[in-house]
Design a protein that fits this description.
The chain is of the alpha+beta class. It contains 20 helices and twelve strands. The chain has a five-stranded mixed beta sheet. Strands 11-10-12 form a three-stranded antiparallel beta sheet. It is globular and about 70 Å long.
Length: 496
Amino acid sequence: MEKIHQPIAQPEAAENYDDKRQLRLINEIMELLVTHHGGSLSEQVLDDSIDALQKAIQLAQDAHRKQVRKSGEPYFFHPLRVAHLAARHWMDFASVIAALLHDVVEDTPTTLENVGAMFGMEIGLLVDGLTKVDDDLLSRSALKEQTYRKQVLLAVRDVRVLCLKFWDRIDNLQTIQALNPEKQRLIAEESRMIYVPLARHLGMGRVATELDALSLRILYPTRAVRYDAHVHEMRELHEPNFGRVRSEIRNVLEHHKIDALLKDRWRHFSIAAARTTGRGLPALYTLDILVDRFLDAYHTLGLLHRLYPPIPGKLRDHLNMPSQYGYQALKTSVQAGEIRLRVEITTRKLARFNDSGVLAPGFEFRSSSFEDLMQSLIEGESAFDMDSLRLASASIQVYTPLGDVRSLPEGSSALDFAFDIHEQLGLHAVRVRINGKTRLLKARLMDGDQIDVETSDRPTVLPKWLEWAVTPRARNSIRRYLRSKVKQPLGGKDKS
């Protein structure tokens, strides 16, 4: 993978270090790690982990000492900020150490063997996952594909590899201005194509949104400036109303002894967001209400609807039924005096899940679904099957004949539904009944559909099914079956 900010040797770089900023970041990293993980570690393990962290800081500092980025900034600040992002998102000591060291193998004489010997196999694996493939015999595009493939393979073993890559990419996008415009665009497009959907698949919706917004600001700078100006105008216009609404909600919640945190959230820049600016405040602003318990969330919803009239058809319960990628909150819209307001209510614990996904403590990571996706990327028609990443879209909920709920990506076909139930059901499917009407397997599903799959005694798999299926589970099963038929000797007997 091409370096976003190639370090440049500069002997006097060490004299330009912003010591105060550096020390602040290091102290915050240490504080976050001890706060998040100190209670679960023995005193000895905690002391050893802190020692390893300090050793990693020193190694990275020394290794990058004479390097600066194209912006002129000392290079060490990049891995330091990546480590800070990792610590903020609940990553452990090993991950933060790997973040600090993620460029030393690529950009300094330090080898992967050196890292493994000093910090152990676990950290060595993580650093390896963040190190691009280096082969003089391969073209630039082939090197990129091989690097993606390497990341995917290692992510199946340890998902932290991808998470660390997200922080690396976020910091690079935030500090990309020194590169020429064409290179900026290539990096932004790659981020949107690869890392945004992968973040969504890991339940890291907020991270995906940030990556997407940073990329789009590079691709559409003029639209971004106009959007920011519009949001600023809306904030100025409605701030008195926001203050009144927050005060009224707090008073009601305090009266009912509900401890709540109210947070403003403005929609990140995107093309979709820019197109909705004419729809007013509800399209751009959300009031987040964080409470302690599930019961408090539902109680808050009832009190809110008693305080302000709810907008019909806008209530979504993702507390009991999380979205496809794990997002959990109650969503509603109310008419709060002069303003129509979008509100999301969740618990403080679930807010961590919504922010950090797979990294949040207690998050139920659907590893099988993720492994399906990773396998699909590896086994795809190309070296890295981008088609499978279409799955990072909104989810729909559909039903079995018995009323069981299944969550599928938007755009899923009836064939995807069959394979989601069971591989054998998918392989033997011939047609379906959707809401009582007979349809073909390629029929696209809508939210709320009820599907009944009709089967045959023998598998009916066809190559064109790969065009109909979008989920990794379905596509992998179809590919495996088709390969097995190609390899099968004439007459179905092994002639060896």
